[in-house]
Amino acid sequence: MKIDALTRTEQFKNFSFVLPAFIIFSVFYIYPFFYTFVLSFHKYDFISESKFIGWANFKEVIFYGKHWWNTVYNGAFITFWALTFQNILAFTLALGVDKATRTGKFYRVIFFLLPVLSEIIIGLLMREFLLSNPGIFNKLLDKLNLSFIAQDWLGRDRALLTAALVHCWKGFGWAFVILLAGLQTIPEQLYEAARIDGASAWQTFLKVTVPLLMPVIALVLVLTILGTMQAFAMILALTRGTGGITEVPVMLIYNHLRGRQVGLACAEGVILGIILIAVSFTMLYISKQIRRRWGVLPR
Amino acid sequence: MSFSHRLGRLIFVLLFMVIGCAPKAPEKKITVWHWMNDRKEAFETLAKKYEELTGIPVKFKLFFPPDIYAQKVIAAARAGNLPEVFGILGEKKMLASFINAGHILDLTDYMQENSREWERQFYPKTLAVTSFKKANTYQIPQGIYGVPIDTTVMEFLYNKTLFRKAGLNPEQPPKTFQDFIYLAKRVQKATKEAGFVCGWGEGWLLNALATEWAINLMGERKFYKTIKGEVSYTDPDWIKVFSLFSQLKDSNILISDITTLINKESEDLFSQGKAAFSFNGSWSVNVYKQLAPDLEFAFFPLPSVSKRFPAKIWGGAGSSFMISAKSPNLKEAVDFLKWLTAQEQQSFLVKETNNLPAVKGCEEILPPILAMLLDDFDILTHPNTWPDNEDTRVLEIMNQGLQQIVMGSKTAQEVAREIQEVKERVCAR
Question: Distances from the Cα of B109 to the Cαs of B153, B260, B418, in angstroms?
Fold first, then answer.
C-alpha cells in the first residue's frame, strides 16, 4: 500500500512537471487543430453566429474548387523543383563541404545564411531585382552579353518557375545542414574498409554513403514537401500570386480568411493537411522499402 | 480575542474589500481606432483641440497596415473590447454582420434630430455607403450606421509633363476608350515610358474599373440584374467589358508586370513619371504630394465605351467611423463625431490631408485638383450603395480572370464562362 501511495505521489509529481507543457500544447496546438476541423463544417465570418453546413465546404473545395486545385498544382510544381534541384544542390554541396576540412566551417555559415533571413525580405529583394521595371537583373545579363536570356521573369510564362527557383535558392541551406550532419555520422572506418576492398569513389558513394544516409534523405524529402507545399510569404512578396499563376494553397487559404470565408479556408486547411500527411507517409514508406531492398533494414 | 471582536474585524475587512471593489463611474473619454496613416498628425491635433474645448480626452490609436487594423477590430468585437469610435474595413456584408451582432449604434435618430441637421451636412452619396434602406437584403433595420469623414473618387489620372513631351495638349485628356489607347500609345512612343500603370496585383482595382465600364456599357439596371443572377456573365455586353481588358493588353500600353503591382508600387511608378496614365483614388493627391511635389498631373473621367448609358464613377465614403453600441460613452462619442464632421474640422482635414470632404461647405478651400472631382459626386457608385452585392467567390474568380486576361493567359470568353459557372453554383446554393 505504502509503495503504491508513493508511486502515485511520484506519478503526480512527474505529471505536474509535464503539466505546463501539456497545457501550452493543448491550448496552442490541440485546441486550434480541432477548432479548425470544427469550423470547416460551418459558415462563419468571424462576427456573425456560425452556421453548421455539413460537408458543403469540403464539397466546394474538392468537387468545384478549380481554383484550389490550381493552387495545389502550383505548390506541387514548386515542390518538384525543391525535391530535385534544391536537394541535389544541397547534397552536392554537403558532400563537398564534408570533405573540406579547412574551409568547411566557412561554407557551412555561408550556405546557412539564406535560410536564416526573412522570407519576406528575400521575396522583396528578389522582386526588385527581377522586375522588368527597373530591370536590374536583365540589365546585368545585358552587360554580361547574355541578353538573349533576359525576359519578363515575373510575367505569365516565367513567374512560377522564377518562384520555384527563388524558393530553392532560399531553402537549400536547410537541406544542406541536415544532409551534412547525416554525412558526418557515417563512420570513417566504413570508407577505409571500402577503400581496402578496392571500391571506387562512385561505388563507395553508392554502396556506403547513400544507403547509410537514406533515413536522413527521407527526412529531408519529407521536410521539403511539408515546407514547400506550405510556402507562402516569400511567394506573396515576390509575385503577389500573379493572377493565380503563382498562387499556392496557403496563399488561397490566407485570401479566404481575409475575405472572412472562414469555413471554406478551414476546409482547405484540413484538405491540405490530409494531402501532406498522405504524401509524407508515402515517402517514408518508399524510403523504408528502398532501405530493405538494399539490406540496410531487415526484411 | 472574543468571538464578537473577531466578527467585527471580519466585517470590517469584508466591507473594506467590497468598497474597494465597487465599480468606478465610467470615465468620460473617447478612444478612436483608425488605420489612416496619412492623417495621424491631423487627427491628433484635432483631438487636442477637442479636449481643450470640452475637457473630454480623445485618443486616436493608429493600427497600420489596414489588414492588421481589420483583424484588430474583429478580435476586439469578439472580445467585447471595441473602443467608442472605430471604422470597419470591408464590404457592406461585414458592416451588416457587425450591426447584426449588436456592435454598432444606429445613428439615425441623432442624424435626424433638429430637422435632420446633421444628416443634411453630408453629401448624400457618402452617407449612403453606411446606410441601409428599408427591406434590404442583409435584413438590417433601416437606418444610418456610420459617419463618413471623407469622400473617395476613383478616376483616371494623366501625367501632364509626359503629354507635353509627346507634343500633346496637356489640358485635353482622352474622352473615349479609343482616344485613351491612342494617346497612351503616342506618349509611349515619344517618351519610351509606359502608357498605363495601375496596382492590378490588387484585384479590387481591376474590379472597380470593370464595374465602371460595365455600367457605362449596359446600364445600371442590367448590371444589378447580373448580380441578382438574372443576366448571365456570358451575355455579349459582359464579354465586351472583359474584352476591353484584352484590348488594353493587345495595345501594349500596360507597364510590364502590371498584375504583380500593388497600388503603392503603382503610385511610386506614376510619381516617377514612368507612365502616362493611371487609375487611382482621390487619396492619391496626398500620396503624390509626398512622393513627388512637382508632379504635374490631373484627373479625368472614365474614358467612355458607349453612349447608350451614362458613366458612373466608383466612389463614396472613403472612410467612415462607427460608434460602439456597447460603449458607456455613447453621447460623448456622438457629440465628438458631430464636432469632427463640422465644416471647420472638415476644412482642416482637407487642408492637412488633401482628401475630399464628406460634408458640404468646404468647396471653396479645395485645391483645384480636388475641386474638379466635385462635379462627379452626383454620378458616384459603390458596391455598398447597390441593392445587392456580388458573392465573394464570384468576385474572386472575376478579379483573377481579369488579371489573366491582362496577362494574356485567358480570353474574355473563357473568363466569362468561368465566372458564370461559379455564379450559377452560388445561386443554386
Answer: 28, 46, 45
> Is there a single domain that holds both residue B114 and residue B217?
no
Q: Does B330 touch chain A (CB under 8 A)?
A: no
Q: How confident is the model at residue A296 (pLDDT cuts 50, 70, 90)?
A: low
Based on the domain organization, do B269 and B343 belong to the same domain? no
> Domain range for residue B346?
30-150+318-377
Residue of A nearest to B400 (CA): A243
Contact residues, chain B, for A50 at CB < 8 Å: none
Of B202, B240, B390, B367, nearest in space to B297 by CA: B367
Structural contact between residues A172 and A91, judged by C-beta atoms closer than 8 angstroms: no
Q: What is the ipTM of this complex?
A: 0.82
Check pLDDT > 90 for residue A104.
no
The answer to whether the Cβ–Cβ distance between B404 and A243 falls below 8 Å is yes
B93 CB neighbours in chain A (<8 A) are 45
Interstrand relation of B275-281 and B194-197 (parallel, antiparallel or unpaired): parallel
pLDDT of B8: 66
pTM of the full structure: 0.85
Provide the residue range defining the domain that includes A187: 59-293
Q: How many of the other CB atoms lie within 10 Å of CB of B228?
A: 13
Using the Cβ of B400 and the Cβ atoms of chain A, whether some distance falls under 8 Å is answered with yes
CA distance A153 to A130: 6
pLDDT at A102 over 80: no
Q: What is the mean pLDDT of residues A273-292?
A: 89
A-chain residues near B393 (CB < 8 A): 261
Number of domains forming the structure of chain A:
1
Rounded distance between C-alpha atoms, residue B289 and residue B17, angstroms: 59
Which residue from B minimizes the CA distance to A240?
B260
Among A237, A223, A236, smallest CA distance to A276 is for: A223
Q: Do A67 and B397 touch (CB under 8 A)?
A: yes
Under an 8 A CB cutoff, do A261 and B392 touch? Answer: yes
In a shared domain, residues B264 and B200: yes
Spans in chain B with pLDDT lower than 50: none
